[in-house]
Amino acid sequence: MTSEPAVPAESGTVPDMAALAKVVARQRAELDRLQDQAAASAVLERAKGALMALTGCAAEAAYEELLARSKAANHTLMEECWITLGALRSRPDHAGAEPATER
Fold first, then answer.
1. Using CA of residue 78, residue 80, residue 84, residue 89, what is the dihedral sign?
2. Alpha-carbon distance 83 to 86, whole Å?
3. What's the burial of 66, exposed, middle or buried (CB within 10 Å: 0-12/13-18/19+)?
4. How far is 46 from 50, CA to CA, in rounded Å?
5. By the 8 A CB rule, do 70 and 76 touch?
6. Global pTM?
7. Distance (Å, whole) CA 75 – CA 72
8. Measured between alpha carbons, how far is residue 20 from residues 6, 9, 16 in Å?
9. What is the DSSP string of 31-96?
10. Closest CA relative to residue 30, chosen from 54, 4, 69, 66
11. How far is Cα 36 from Cα 78, in angstroms, rounded to an integer?
């Protein structure tokens, strides 16, 4: 995030509303970008965790496997993560399992 200089407010003058609106718009865009990045990171970490649990591999190996799968199938890394996570829902050993309940 870039630091913007404060809008100079000379004593007794009203700050330029257009300049303030631009600062707010940039901040909102940065917030949206960071939220998207956090969501993508969470999906990647879940997919890595799923591969680690299924195969017993390390985190770096799980990442490399997801990357290799995405390249082989001509998918983006995020698409491959969602495919991997979606495959967990259709695994036969989870069929008929009781959903977890909160205590």
1. positive
2. 5
3. buried
4. 6
5. yes
6. 0.66
7. 8
8. 9, 11, 6
9. HHHHHHHHHHHHHHHHHHHHHHHHH---HHHHHHHHHHHHHHTT--HHHHHHHHHHHHHT-GGGTT
10. 4
11. 12
CA 7 vs. chain centroid, Å, equals 33
Per-residue pLDDT of the chain (103 residues; tens, 9 = 90+): 556 555 555 554 567 998 999 999 999 999 999 999 999 999 999 999 999 999 999 999 999 999 999 999 999 999 999 999 999 887 666 544 455 454 4
Two structure tokens written together for 47: 């997919």
**H or E element that contains 25:** helix 17-55
